[in-house]
């Protein structure tokens, strides 16, 4: 119903639909106050059905994850029938399509991308999350040719920390670790490490290490016993990843949630006629509303050398 879109249209100018996935549609849009492009993932609650919890899992995870190689969630709008996730614009599309288009990547290009994947996965593990569905379809390319991890619908944040055993068998078979498809209790971070190995193989070779149309045959091929799987700590400074680099993979976030950018606070406080202190406090609540979106998109403008300014005249004169 049109009133589902009322709040969304107040803050964003909607443009073309660029993707219609399983239970979501992705539209391009522009944030009115900053002029920044965004992607909007639109889900209909009714047609989501049993997938609704997966969306809640994804939103809760993304609210806590702020990192240069994770697709940023800016704003969540929920109406009686719809859920809108306003997300970081990634015009390079999926890494999957990029590999297909190039057949396979050179070692140098694969190394650049893989260092970014290791950075993102190390960060989410440090925050107590396992992604559990790492594959080229879940890595997007942004306007600076950097990778951004998406789809946290299957992620897990075990209560007792990441060394807790998980049970749910999930993710894509071709990328699933042996212990996971054996239905054994597994460690989420170890399963992610296995998937990264499969991903690395796909980047370099352009096809999958274990593949078969028959899923039982596929499982048999994956059953290579994982003797000693590398840990993320050793991966960060693996010799192949270090080639041409003088430092291990930098995995810490460049934009930790606790750090609030002064220039953005100043512009917001002037615009919303609030003191800098109260504006800073409001931002730090991370409500994923218009304030969060405007702050993050101002920060993005600053990161791209654009002026940290908000539009004074609304585009559409009501
Ligand atoms: O900005 C996103 N996508 C996107 C934006 C512009 C363009 C393209 C793609 C490629 C197609 N040609 C037009 C240029 C974009 C951002 C976030 C998310 C997202 C974050 N969590 N979940 C989804 C999904 C996105 O898209 C999905 C997609 C659509 C068409 C193809 C390839 C990928």
Provide a descriptive summary of the structure in words.
- The chain has 318 residues and is of the alpha+beta class.
- The protein is 38% helix and 15% strand.
- The strands form 3 sheets. The chain has a 5-stranded antiparallel beta sheet. A 3-stranded antiparallel beta sheet has the order 6-7-8. The chain has a two-stranded antiparallel ribbon with strand order 9-10.
- The protein is globular.
- The site of the ligand O=C(Nc1ccc2c(c1)CCNCC2)c1ccc(-c2cn[nH]c2)cc1OCc1ccccc1 has 16 residues, from β1, β2, β3 and β6.
Structural class: alpha+beta
Oligomeric nature of the chains: single chain
What gyration radius follows from the Cα positions, in whole Å? 21 Å
User: Mind describing the biggest β-sheet?
Assistant: 5 strands, antiparallel
* Overall pLDDT confidence: 94
Distance between the termini: 21 Å
The portion of residues forming beta strands comes to 15-25%
Number of strands: 10
What is the N-to-C succession of helices and strands?
HEEEHHEEEHHEEEHEHHHHHHH
Low-confidence stretches are none
How much helix, percentage-wise, in residues? 25-40%
- The rough form would be described as globular
Strand order of the largest sheet: 1-2-3-5-4
Number of helical regions: 13
Structure ligands = ligand 7LY
Keywords summarizing the entry:
318 residues, alpha+beta, 3-stranded antiparallel β-sheet, globular
What can be said about this structure in brief?
The protein has 13 helices and 10 strands. The protein has helices at 6-11, 45-48, 52-64, 95-102, 107-126, 178-181, 188-205, 215-222, 232-235, 239-242, 262-271, 276-283, 290-303; strands spanning 12-20, 25-31, 37-44, 73-78, 82-88, 93-94, 139-141, 147-149, 165-166, 186-187.
